[in-house]
User: What shape does this take?
Amino acid sequence: MSEFKFNEENEKKFEELLTRYPERASLSLPSLWMVQYQEGWISEDAMVYIAQKLDTTPMDIQSIASFYTMFNLKPIGKYHIQVCKTLSCKLCGSEAIRSHLQKQLGIKFGETTKDMKFTLSEVECLGSCGTAPVMSFNDDYIENLTIEKIDKILDES
Amino acid sequence: MIVKIVSKNFDIENSHKLEVALKHGRYASLEKLFSMSPNEVTEEVTKSGLRGKGGGGAATGDKWKLMPKKHEKPSYLVVNADESEPGTFKDRQIMEYDPHLLIEGIINSSYAIGAHHAYIYIRGEYVFWAKRVNEAIDEAYKAGYLGEKVSGFDYKLDVTLHRGGGAYICGEKSALLESLEGKRGHPRLKPQQKEPEWFFGGPTVVNNVETIASVPFIIKEGFEAYRAYGTDQSPGTMLFGMSGHINNPGIYELPFGTSMKQFIEEVGGGVKDGKKLKALIPGGSSCHVLRADEIDNITLDYESLKKHGSSLGTGGMIIMDEDTFMPEAMKNLFEFYHHESCGQCTPCREGCGWVDKILGKLLKGKGTQADYKTILDACEMLNGKTICVFAPSVAYIANSYLTKFKEEFDSLCKN
Assistant: This one.
């Protein structure tokens, strides 16, 4: 048995989603998303919970969760900054943006600040090439990035 | 040069809201749609010559015709909104500015193939766009454009949006379906014969967002109106993108057959900072790179790009100026492919990584004369030995960089 449980809203959403797919196995990704929005990350305990809900094994859920890069399998900072490093962004100056972010936050890519406020990641193409360079700040895209824009966001957070 | 078929409502304020969308022609195809039989709809789309706009360019009508007339399990339409090919950012424009066009297209297409449930598989990073499409779906349900009786006609349709988790490979249709079935996004083996895709054993069509969004125009105005644009073999229009070293990056709808050079100069405003063009990738990073001296006679259609040794792909062009060092550009893309290989097949999982590593060694100034050939050998190992086309396309594009800019690689392989 797991100690994790969906909150009321997610439980309702889960039941609703069950009616939208021919088989409950389809609910693995939606369930992982619900856990991540509820807790900020996906613990092994939560995977056991999802496995029970979907009539499968925790191992199965772990194998799925670890395949998709957007699922955080350990706690991350309050703000997750993900900077695009692929070609169009690179051509439009993402490298200066990347080093500025590392300098300002005092951490390297893949790390979290000690106060658990910021996690910095570099990611592959975010699909925002026409407004490069780009990063995502939690769920929002910040496009046409400049050093000034970054400083402003970090100041306000 | 620019035309407005799919992008007609993009500049209208609040065009994503049903109220505004209705004033600008959305759902106007439905009356005519339901006066036709599903076969007639498929026939109309076949005659229009509509081709898939997700990169492959397969004929949409032919794909629909693969659906069995009778099957014990229900049929499905799956819309591929897992837009993640570097250089491609067109589908998000449709979802942002005209999500009701997408829903209208889904109604048209689902009716044609006999599906009563459609899924939109959207890449996980597109949170804003997922919300926007979901809001549009809710509006459409409330207004009766989705649900038990679509627009009052005797046809039931549900639409569900499904978010991915950040895996490029899920843009490959069979990997997408695996993912939609709740598994890892591993591509499936392809059958020998032509057949539809399968979602939990039910016959399924997977179409790209832009393809689906092109259907309402064809149904409402007729196939000839669509064929009035474009070329004989590539009829209609496409949302072409420009990014990288270009003055006016963005998405522009053009008829197929438009001159590439004219597009770059007149619409794109030429290369940034008055520099010279060195190279460009025509349609997403998985197309052969083209040197500036190769593009003079190219027109933007499947046949012309193929004739010039590349492909049209998704139409998302990446422009590189004279100062771009091509081995660096190639290394950047190989970091992408290394990261995004799904890992199912050993040649791909290992090969992409090895090429990435060797390029890294070259760029650190440690390249030897043997390295150039080692990369070519690694590419040979990538080609034709895997389940999906990821590895072969990686091998092809590597070859295009290595041969077209050989002197730049040679300058790094001196030790």
Residues 237-321 of chain B form a domain with the Ubiquitin-like (UB roll) fold (CATH 3.10.20.600).
